[in-house]
């Protein structure tokens, strides 16, 4: 038995007899209950329990029953040590040089051990590198990071690992200000001068900021910032006192501080002599006090008697160039006094006198104003004074004007008015408005008004013996009229009364007779009005034929008729004492002397009394309505339905108001949740909800005069599948939904997957709505593929679920490259999955690894490296991952070969050797020798050699210790970027392939060994032919 540390271990054996004793032992030592051991007996079962297993509990345990023995082997394993929250840890870190770098992980077990590696090399706890442990926390601390600390850091627990990618930013040397002592410089200047500040920096490319009182300054109309080499200059044109403050030239690492004080020029008022003589102004006029300053930018304050004056109301303070002014609008007597203009360094006083203005009439004309008014109208006389504080007096033609009902005195500001209402002829004359200094006359003329009728007579219709009044209204109260009848003048008498009330004129006739009918006229000197009097004589009304009683059946029409003389008699109808209003059911008609009332579709409630009224004569009749029989037009039909369905029984009666009742097996049915009774026109329905076996039987519908019945059969429901399950194919971590629809709602069912019942969980949702049933599976994995089945009653439906890996996509595609001839080109792309296979193609042809072509992968990266590129290697290179592909172009630039060292002339003695030497720009260039234009060939006296510069190893290999199943990197630096090397393991040469990856970048020569194991431990050599370096590789773990 294998268990993890901390789990419960249960060892159990069953005996043939319940009372048999047993003994437990471990490695021959008898065990007793207590401590971490529990011994239990239950019937024939004997148990040994270890509640929290530890490493010391491993071993062989024996249960001895005297006649038989059972042996158990227990192995307690250490739990797997995992790194917690790997997905949220920041694996890419960027830090500044000299900062402390802290890499921290949390383990699943507090006793777990970890090992730290940098670029495959194991790290030890040294002065700058610290390995710390605190509970489940494991930390790697590097103090004062340097550029060499950048790289890949691996934290390995034996069961889990995580890689951190670290970059270190090394700052440039600080910028200093040459000649700066750090002390503050003080400068003073007068307003208007230019302020120039300059400093010299240690580097010409350095960036500085100019600050004023802590705010950064930017070039503008007055501010100029200049840079010439290492010189930086700030110029402020025409400095002002507001420019005073602290100026700083800041280079981030150094600064120069200058305190600047700009003093203002003294202010002088240049027109003081103009203010020596007092100013006089008349009340109501405007006056302006002016002071001119030098310089013109100075500010002033205006005061009067110690009070500061500001713009507002009648005061206006202005500033324009060197001029400062104070304007007083509509001066008043109280505005006089001494005004002060204070400029700080200078001041001036102004003395103002305001003279009282005479009160005049501003709308007075040379000739007196004339007004013509109609008698009875209104006249308005208005005079406007020059000031508001003024009193006037009005004089009429005969006496002073006093306010009364017909004379109104009004004042509105400077406007004084006299209003005459209902002007009479005697109101004509001269009116005068008097003020202390002026007077204004008005001549009022009144034109007499003609006697016109505002409202004329109206025609009158009266009955014999009634009192009649004819009246009209004149345009004025004074005016005589004459009354005429049929052109004859009427005189007042017992039968005629003529009344005058204001502007109204009336003629009253008492007890009019037919002879009083005719045309009446009321005349004035200028107008007349006419009216006609009609006298009506009473007539005789007679009902020739009375109303007759009627008896009709329910639903029939009833018509009542009567004959009334004469034809123009007004006849009204009443039904049960209520007036009849014509409608669709109540029709009132008239044809000559015949008057009729028709009641359509009579109902029993319409029975009652019908009355007709002919101008006071009344005739009455009785209406009787007999109830109609209720019959079934459409009868019930036998029905067959399934359980849990709703069924509707329907009949149709002979008329809409019929009442029926429903019965089952002779028992009256009442409305409720089981039975729903409805009426619609002549239709009557009974709905039986959720049928069960007890609902079968005979149902009857009855009225007072008829009945109908039918049988209802209830059958067991037959559940079927309307929409079956469908196969689903999806990708890993996606969601799949299975749905089917049954013929009936509310049917319970069971979902299974590969024969195992599915229960709701965080990744599984089961739902049912109506006839539909659904199963939703979320965050699918590859192992979730299988068969999904739904079972309900005797039904069974299955479908297949297939979960595939998501298609491979390219996170980063290869980029176009341009390399020189014989150079190295590397195409790299990054895939969405680390285990995806790719193929590389050039112009459609698949590439295979070779001496100058390396194909390898690193995590999700896929790399194609071409060394010693030739012109023929130019073209299109494609990385094909099956689901996606990407291409990039390679451009090879032909190298430019030139002679570095020319041939030198040689003088030798006869018989000696002559050596000619030249040096080309590239060591692998083949050359030819010529003498006098002819090619020189190798012979016994001519030797031709081509030698390259010797290659030295500048930085040798270092011994490495790496973890098993990881990659090991061996790197050295050669003296020449084009130097060729070979790699040896022991004495055997290594070539690039799946196991080994060889990289040549500039002067760096690198050997990468993938998935190292114990068998890879050996000595590895980088051979540069002229030099070599050897290092030892050690592998930890298995």
UniProtKB/TrEMBL annotation:
The keyword Cytoplasm applies. Gene3D superfamilies: Immunoglobulins. Residues 1-73, 95-171, 173-263, 266-351, 358-433, 436-534, 538-624, 648-720, 806-898, 950-1038 form the Ig-like domain. InterPro entries: Ig-like_dom, Ig-like_dom_sf, Ig-like_fold, Ig_I-set, Ig_sub, Ig_sub2, Obscurin/Obscurin-like_Reg. Pfam families: I-set. Keywords: Cytoplasm, Disulfide bond, Phosphoprotein. This is Ig-like domain-containing protein. The keyword Transcription does not apply. It is found in: Cytoplasm.
């Amino acid at each position: 038995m294998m268990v993890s540390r901390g789990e419960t271990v249960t060892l159990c054996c069953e005996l043939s007899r319940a009372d048999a004793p047993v003994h437990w032992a471990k490695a021959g030592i008898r065990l007793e209950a207590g401590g971490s051991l529990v011994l239990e007996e239950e019937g024939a079962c004997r148990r040994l329990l270890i509640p929290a297993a530890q490493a010391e509990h491993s071993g062989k345990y024996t249960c001895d029953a005297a006649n038989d023995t059972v042996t158990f082997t227990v192995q307690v394993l250490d739990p797997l040590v995992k790194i917690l929250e790997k997905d949220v840890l920041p694996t890419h870190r960027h830090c500044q040089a000299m900062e402390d770098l802290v890499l921290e992980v949390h383990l699943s077990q507090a006793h777990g051990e970890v090992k730290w590696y940098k670029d495959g090399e194991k790290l030890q706890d040294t002065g700058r590198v610290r390995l710390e442990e605190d509970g489940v926390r494991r930390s790697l601390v590097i103090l004062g990071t340097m550029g060499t600390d950048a790289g890949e850091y691996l934290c390995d627990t034996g069961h889990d690992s995580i890689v951190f990618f670290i970059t270190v930013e090394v700052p440039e040397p600080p910028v200093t200000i040459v000649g700066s002592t750090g002390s503050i410089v003080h400068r003073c200047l007068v307003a208007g001068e230019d302020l120039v500040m300059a400093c010299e920096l240690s580097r010409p490319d350095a960036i500085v900021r100019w600050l004023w009182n802590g705010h950064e300054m930017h070039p503008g109309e007055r501010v100029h910032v200049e840079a010439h080499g290492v010189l930086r200059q700030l110029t402020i044109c025409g400095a002002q006192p507001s420019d005073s403050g602290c100026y700083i030239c800041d280079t981030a690492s150094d600064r120069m501080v200058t305190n600047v004080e700009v003093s203002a020029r003294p202010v002088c008022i240049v027109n003081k002599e103009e203010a020596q003589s007092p100013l006089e102004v008349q009340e109501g006029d405007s006056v302006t006090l002016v002071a001119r300053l030098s310089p013109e930018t100075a500010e002033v304050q205006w005061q009067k008697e110690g009070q500061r004056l500001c713009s507002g109301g009648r005061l206006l303070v202005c500033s324009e160039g060197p001029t400062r002014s104070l304007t007083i609008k509509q001066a008043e007597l109280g505005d006089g006094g001494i005004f002060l203009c204070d400029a700080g360094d200078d001041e001036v006083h102004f003395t103002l006198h305001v003279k009282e203005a005479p009160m005049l009439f501003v709308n007075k004309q040379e000739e007196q104003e004339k007004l013509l008014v109609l008698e009875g109208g209104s006249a308005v006389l208005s005079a406007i004074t020059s000031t508001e504080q003024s009193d006037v007096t009005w004089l009429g033609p005969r006496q002073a004007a006093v306010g009364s009902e017909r004379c109104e005195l009004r004042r509105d500001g400077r406007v004084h008015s006299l209003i005459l209402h209902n002007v009479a002829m005697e109101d004509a004359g001269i009116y005068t408005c008097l003020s202390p200094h002026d007077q204004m006359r008005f001549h009022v003329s009144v034109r007499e008004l003609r006697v016109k009728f505002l409202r004329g007579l109206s025609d009158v219709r009266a009955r014999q013996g009634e009192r009649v009044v004819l009246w009209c209204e004149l345009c004025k109260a004074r005016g005589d009229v004459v009354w005429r009848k049929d052109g004859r003048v009427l005189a007042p008498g017992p039968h005629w009364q003529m009344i005058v009330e204001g502007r109204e004129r009336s003629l009253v006739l008492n007890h009019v007779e037919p002879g009083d009918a005719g045309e009446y006229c009321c005349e004035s000197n200028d107008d007349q009005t006419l009216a006609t009097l009609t006298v009506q004589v009473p007539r005789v009304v007679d009902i020739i034929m009375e109303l007759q009683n009627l008896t009709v059946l329910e639903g029939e029409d009833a018509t009542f008729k009567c004959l009334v003389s004469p034809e123009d008699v007004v006849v009204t109808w009443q039904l049960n004492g209520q007036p009849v209003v014509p409608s669709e059911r109540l029709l009132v008609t008239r044809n000559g002397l015949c008057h009729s009332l028709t009641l359509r579709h009579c109902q029993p409630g319409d029975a009652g009394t019908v009355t007709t009224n002919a101008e006071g004569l009344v005739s009455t009749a009785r209406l009787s309505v007999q109830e109609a029989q209720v019959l079934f037009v459409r009868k019930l039909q036998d029905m067959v339905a399934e359980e849990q369905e709703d069924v509707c029984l329907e009949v149709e009666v002979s008329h809409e108001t019929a009442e029926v009742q429903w019965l089952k097996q002779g028992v009256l049915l009442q409305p409720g949740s089981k039975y729903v009774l409805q009426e619609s026109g002549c239709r009557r329905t009974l709905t039986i909800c959720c049928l069960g076996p007890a609902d079968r039987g005979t149902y009857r519908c009855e009225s007072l005069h008829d009945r109908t019945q039918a049988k209802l059969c209830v059958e067991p429901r037959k559940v079927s599948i309307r929409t079956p399950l469908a196969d689903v194919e999806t990708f890993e971590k996606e969601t799949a939904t299975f749905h089917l629809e049954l013929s009936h709602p509310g049917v319970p069912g069971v979902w299974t997957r590969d024969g195992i019942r599915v229960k709701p969980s965080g990744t599984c949702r089961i739902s049912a709505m109506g006839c539909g049933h659904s199963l939703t599976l979320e965050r699918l994995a590859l192992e979730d593929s299988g068969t999904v089945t739904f079972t309900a009653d005797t039904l069974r439906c299955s479908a297949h679920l297939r979960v595939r890996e998501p298609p491979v996509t390219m996170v980063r595609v290869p980029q176009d490259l341009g390399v020189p001839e014989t150079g190295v080109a590397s195409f790299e792309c990054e895939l969405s999955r680390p285990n995806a296979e790719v193929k590389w193609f050039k112009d459609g042809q698949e590439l295979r690894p070779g001496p100058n072509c390396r194909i390898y992968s690193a995590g999700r990266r896929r790399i194609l490296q071409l060394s010693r590129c030739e012109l023929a290697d130019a073209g299109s290179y494609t990385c094909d991952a099956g689901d996606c592909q990407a291409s990039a172009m390679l451009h090879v630039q032909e190298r430019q070969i030139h002679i570095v060292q020319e041939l030198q002339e040689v003088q030798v003695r006869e018989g000696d050797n002559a050596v000619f030497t030249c040096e080309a720009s590239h060591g692998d260039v083949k050359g030819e020798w010529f003498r006098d234009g002819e090619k020189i060939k190798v012979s016994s006296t001519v030797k031709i050699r081509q030698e390259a510069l010797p290659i030295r190893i500048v930085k040798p290999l270092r011994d490495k210790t790496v973890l098993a199943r990881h990659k090991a990197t061996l790197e050295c630096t050669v003296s020449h970027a084009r130097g060729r090397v070979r790699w040896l393991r022991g004495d055997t040469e290594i070539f690039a392939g799946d196991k080994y990856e060889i990289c040549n970048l500039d002067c760096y020569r690198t050997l990468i060994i993938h998935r190292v194991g114990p068998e890879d431990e050996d000595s590895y050599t980088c051979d540069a032919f002229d030099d070599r370096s050897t290092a030892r590789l050690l592998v930890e773990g298995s």
